[in-house]
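User: Thanks for the earlier help. One more: Polyprenyltransferase. Can you show the sequence and predicted structure together?

Assistant: Of course, both are below.
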Amino acid sequence: MRPANIVTSVADVLAGIAIAGYFSHLTFTANSFYPVLLLCLSTIGLYGGGIVFNDVFDAELDKVERPERAIPSGLVSLKEATFLGAFLLLWGIGFAFSYSNHAGALAAGVAFFALLYNKVSKHYPFVGPLNMGLCRGLNLLLGISIAVPMLEHFYYLAVVPIIYIFSITMISQGEVHGGNKRNLYIGGVLYAIVICAITFFAINQAQPAAIAFLLPFAWMIYRPLANAIKNPIGPNIGKAVKAGVISLILMDAAWAAAFGAIWAAVFIACLLPVSMRFAKVFAVT
C-alpha cells in the first residue's frame, strides 16, 4: 500500500481544502472537521487501492524485476491482494459519496484512472505519465470539492500536479534498468514550471510565506535529480523518484500557504517527517 505515499495523498486533499478557503472559516468543532475527515479517508482508500492494483497487474513482471515485493515474495497471494485493492477503492469512493456527489464522482474518476494506468497506460511512455498525473490532479480537486462552487473557480489548478507527477513518472521509467539523461532533464524543466506556477499564485494572492515551503521543496527534488543526471543508474533514479514523491507534501504546503492558510500549511509540512519515517520501513516505489 506504500504508506509513505498515502501520506502525500492526504496532503494533496488538505491542500485542495485550503485552496477552497475552507480552513479560513473553520470553527474548531467536530462538525467542522467531519468533511475534512471524510475526504482524507477517501484519498487513503483511493491511493492505497491504486497502489495495490499496481502490484496485482505487475505480479508476473515483479517475479523478475521486483522479487522483494509482497506478491512475488509470497507474503500475500494474488487473490488476497486483489480483494484488498478492490476493498480500498470502494472504501475511497464510498467515503467521498458520503460527503457529496461531486466528491464521489471525482473519487470514482481517480479509481478509474488508477486502474487504467495499472492495466494499460503505464506501458506507454507519454500516456502513462499523463494518466498518473490525472490521478493526482483529480485528488487535488477532491479536496477542493469540499466547497463545490470553488471547483468552478479552481478546476484548472489540477494541471500543476498533473505536470509534476508526469515528470516523476517519466523519471521513474529508468528506475529498474537505468535511464537516459533526456528524461531527467525534461523532468527538471517540468519541476521548474511547477515551482513557477505556485510562485505566481503566491504573488497573486500576496502570500510571500509560501516561499518558506517552496525553497525546501526545490532543494529536496533537485538535489537527487542532479545526482541522477550525473550518473543515471537505477539506484540514483530511484532516489530521485522517492524524493519527488515525498516532496509532494512540501508542494502541498506551499499551495496552502499561497492561498493564505498558513497554519494549515504548517500542519501539512508536519506530515513530511511522518512520510519519511514510513519510507524507511516501507517501499516508496
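User: Great, one quick takeaway?

Assistant: The chain has one domain: 3-281.
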